[in-house]
Amino acid sequence: MHLALINIAKAKYSMDNSRMSGFVNNLDALENYTYRTIHKRVFTSRNNWFDKIDGAHMALWWINEGETPTIEEGKRRLQMIADNGS
């Protein structure tokens, strides 16, 4: 079994706004950021780029090895948390 994760955020500005320049906006950069940098540096700046979300913003669930989680499944999991709690 593998653990799937969805983590959503509400950007304060459009992604092409210069105020978002410190945030990662392509998949290669995201992968590099996630696995090859100190995540805490960007994480501590999250309030510069994102507004607080009311309700659940993250969900984790088990999937079978080789399965790819979908955005739709992630949304469904977030809704389950909203409806039923954790």
Structure description:
With 86 residues, the chain is of the alpha+beta class. It has one domain. Helices cover 38% and strands 19% of the residues. It has four helices and four strands, in the order ββαααββα. It has helices at residues 27-36, 39-43, 46-49, 71-84, and strands at residues 2-7, 10-11, 50-51, 58-63. The strands form two sheets. Strands 1-4 form a two-stranded antiparallel ribbon. The protein is globular and about 35 Å long. The chain starts with a strand and ends with a helix. The model has no long low-confidence stretch (mean pLDDT 87).
Rg computed from alpha carbons, rounded to a whole number of angstroms: 15 Å
User: How much of the residues is beta strand, in percent?
Assistant: 15-25%
Whole-number mean pLDDT: 87
- What is the terminal-to-terminal distance? 20 Å
List its salient traits:
alpha+beta; 86 residues; DUF3291; DUF3291 domain-containing protein; two-stranded antiparallel ribbon
